[in-house]
Design brief:
The protein is an alpha+beta fold and 150 residues long. Helices cover 33% and strands 29% of the residues.
């Protein structure tokens, strides 16, 4: 090898180290993606609930979402279930899970009923600011925020 070859080799190694360092730095600085990433839907059909939410100042971001749940009992029996989230809405920087009232399964406005019916949605999406319970029959939106003190 000639004297100039050593310089070129050191220069290539330095460039390679810089590229690796910058790539590693970019990778480490990238925010962690949540398994519950919410991608807004392109088109949201206007229903009574969507119109009510938009009139109240919320931006409806998604259609109904299905959250599949697998339940394993005693390491043997496997059951399938699911949760349905009616919409996700945004108000400013805050996101909310939306649950639309059902006539066959009404929600009593008591602590235990709200806990049993709506707390699972907050626990599924802990970054959500709360749950909006929308009753289109009486044109009412109830914003519910949970504070869990451990």
């Amino acid at each position: 090898m000639q004297a100039g070859d050593n310089f070129v080799l050191l220069l290539l190694i330095a460039i390679l180290l810089i590229v690796v360092f910058l790539g590693l730095r970019r990778w480490l600085m990238k925010p962690l993606s949540s398994p519950w990433s919410l991608t807004p839907d392109d088109e949201i059909p206007i229903t009574e609930a969507v119109a009510l939410l938009e009139d109240a100042g919320y931006e409806v971001m998604t259609l109904k979402r299905k959250v599949p749940i697998t339940i394993l009992i005693n390491d043997m029996e496997e059951l399938e279930s699911r949760f349905f989230v009616d919409h996700f809405v945004k108000s400013g920087e805050e996101w909310y899970v939306v649950r639309i009232a059902r006539s066959r399964k009404p929600l009593e406005m008591t602590g235990s009923s709200i806990r049993d019916h709506l707390l699972p949605y907050q626990l599924l999406y802990p970054k959500a600011s709360g749950v909006l319970y929308v009753d289109v029959n009486v044109r009412n939106i109830v914003k519910i925020e949970f504070q869990i003190d451990l």
